[in-house]
Amino acid sequence: MPCGGVPGQHVDPGRVTVLVEDATAAPSMHNAQPWRFRWHSWRRVMELRADTARAMPHADPDNRALHLGCGAALFNLRVSAAHAGREPFCRLLPDPADQLLLATVRLDEPPSDSSALSILRPAIHRRHTSRDPFTEQEIPEAVRRELRGAARAEGADLLFPGVWHIQSLLERVQDAEGRDSLESANREETESWIRTGPDAALSIDGVPDYAFGPVRHDGRAPVRDFAGWHRVAGRAAATFKDSPQLVLLGTAKDRPDDWLRAGQAMERVLLTATAQGLATSLTSHALERPDLRWSARDPLTAMGHVQMVLRLGYGPGGVQSPRRPVGEVLECV
Fold it and tell me: Which of 83, 231, 302, 307 sits most deeply, having the most CB atoms within 10 A of its CB?
């Protein structure tokens, strides 16, 4: 049923579309957008469901990254609802018998305190993954505190690692890149999400060639080069920092509900960073291997499980990646 014209409906049908447009602006692994939404108009409840047809069995065999992406979409939905004057009451994994149902969001009104969420709404469509070099400018401590607070508000931890830890993370990224080059199944899976040539301009998902960023001429920043063997005409080369400003986001436990919380925390950190004028990118490369992921943590901290590595800094903000039309991901019942 289309989202409109339902007598007695308490939420404007146009608002439902905006909610989903905002939700789907979230980042996801290889921009696969592994989510679906189901709007129950009479109950004012939105379901967030996993789209396992967009899962990645080689790079993400337990669907951890899928949950992170869906968690990020869930946070955007909460921000959009608060901005519209609604209180988003969320339940994670509400039905053990339905593993595809990741969360429900009931839209109550008015919100008890929407300001902390609603002020992030302008950042939703300004946030893009940047695969360009960042400058040497350090992130001020006041901004770091705000980013840590954003992660804590969603039940996660945020760690700014020291130089030795950053170098260790970069080594693990290189290790992962080397392993990927030897494994055809991983290469083919990644290739299936790359859009080049005429397909790039028409794509509604995946990573288009115009978002690849420059070729890495030098430096060790953990920026995945999606070009692979593809040649992109006019693509520039650039030097990246040897010691980028990396941030670890993690949780104490490592269950599906923790992954959803981590995804919400990740997006809250990314939107807060965007609002503060920072450019952002994500790197999951070293976390796609269980042994590398475990060694990415800092044993001197309480962070039990690293869920994502973020690259933050000052520089170009990246370009907008394509998104699936709302009509393709939203069902109204």
Answer: 307
